[in-house]
Amino acid sequence: RQGSELSGWAMGRWTYEGIDLNHNFADLNTALWDAEDNDLVPHEFPNHYIPIPEYYTFANATVAPETRAVIDWMQRYPFVLSANLHGGELVVTYPFDMTRTYWKAQELTPTADDGVFRWLATVYATSNLAMATEERRLCHYDDFMRVGNIINGANWHTVPGSMNDFSYLHTNCFEITVELSCDKFPHASELPAEWENNRESLLLYMEQVHRGIKGVVRDRDTEQGIANAIISVDGINHDIRT
């Protein structure tokens, strides 16, 4: 990354190659929503493990090597819970990050697992010392305290190609974004306090992997585990895979 307080925080958004990693993942949302509009989901188009579009795999595609490496990592390991840490605000955002109406800058765009995502975001926000204190000041002009310091990402500002949306649509992983400090560049002397603000919330968040249903899908006759079995839950239009 480039950038510092001296050059302005925006410089730090882009890599040396000029790519904003926060918008660099494949847009799988549009493909899903187009398929939904045409009644193709889930029989002709999947509602999970959506394949990466061919254009994204071309050698000349504007995809950072860091992004490609993270995608390879996600495909090799079956992560189920993740969070990425940002600075500049005090709020926890959850998918979808991209608005369904493409021309809108803000629009409530929940996933099929909205209740789970709201719970995950709330776990972090309510245990984060900086967010939970009633004496805290606003970072900028948004008063996230009124909504429990959580917000649907697209309802704040649209982010096409976010890692959160990609994780949800291409893997089994549920991912949120934690904006954990008003200050993008805290001084070294402030880091112990920043750690204390986030230590308990990080631990509580990780503990959420123990929620929900766990088990092994087995062949009834051989008792062998079945890889890539698709599990559907009534009323939730988003399957997961063993």
UniProtKB/TrEMBL annotation:
GO terms for cellular component: extracellular space. GO terms for biological process: proteolysis. Residues 1-209 form the Peptidase M14 domain. It comes from the Eukaryota. The active site is at E179. InterPro entries: CARBOXYPEPT_ZN_2 (IPR057247), Peptidase_M14 (IPR000834), Peptidase_M14_domain (IPR050753). Gene3D superfamilies: Zn peptidases (3.40.630.10). PROSITE patterns: CARBOXYPEPT_ZN_2, PEPTIDASE_M14. GO terms for molecular function: metallocarboxypeptidase activity; zinc ion binding. The keyword Protease applies. Keywords: Carboxypeptidase, Hydrolase, Metal-binding, Metalloprotease, Protease, Zinc. This is CPXM1 carboxypeptidase. It comes from Pterocles burchelli. The gene is Cpxm1.
